[in-house]
C-alpha cells in the first residue's frame, strides 16, 4: 500500500485521528497528551498532506476507505475507534458507514452541506491556501510573532488564534501552501457531492464548533438523517479546527465518543 506517515503513542483501545484538508497530523498535538493515558493514539498524515506522499490510487472517499482498511491491517488494528476534523470527519463517517471502525467522532465534518454552503466553504479554504502561498515564510514568522498577527493569519480557521504558538502557525502555513493533495481533494466536492449516510451500527458523535467560520452547522434533524442514533454536541468557544482552542473539551469528546 502507499506509505502513510503517522505518530503512535499511548495505551488502551486504538483511536485513529484524521486531520482536515490542507492540515497535517500535528493538528492533534494539543489533545494527544490528554488521550494517550487512555487510548493507543494513531495520528495520520493523509496521502498528499503533511509528510505522506501522494496516493497511487487517487483521491476521494473510496480510495481513502481502501487505504485505511489496509492501514488498519498493517498496524494490527481490528476495527479501531476513529475521529476526524473537517475532511477527516467526513472520512471518519464514511469509515463508520463501511463498518470498518468501532466508533466515529466527527468534529465539524465536511460533506454535510447544501450546495451554497459547499461553494462558500471550498472558496474560503482556497483563499486561505492562496494567502499561505503568497506570503513568504519569513513574513509569516514575523506576523505570527504577535497575537494580532496570529488572528489575521488564522482567524478564519480557529476560534482562539492567540493560543497558537508562532511555530505552529508558520509550520501549518507551510503545510497548507505546499500540500499536493489540496487541489485534487477539493475537486472531489464538485457537482452535488454531499454525504448523506446513514451511519448505523456503531456509536457516532458529531460535535460542531460553535464559532465555525468555514462550515455552517446543520440542523439536528439533518444530522439525525446522517447518524440516526448519533450523539450531537456543540463545542463552545471553538473554531473550525477546535483542537487548540479547547484541548480539554475536545479530548473529553473524543474519549466519550470512543468508549
From TrEMBL:
Keywords: Hydrolase. InterPro entries: AB_hydrolase_1 (IPR000073), AB_hydrolase_fold (IPR029058). Gene3D superfamilies: alpha/beta hydrolase. Pfam families: Abhydrolase_6 (PF12697). Residues 15-252 form the AB hydrolase-1 domain. GO terms for molecular function: hydrolase activity. PANTHER family: ALPHA/BETA-HYDROLASES SUPERFAMILY PROTEIN (PTHR46438), LIPASE-RELATED (PTHR46438:SF11). This is Alpha/beta fold hydrolase. It comes from Amycolatopsis eburnea.
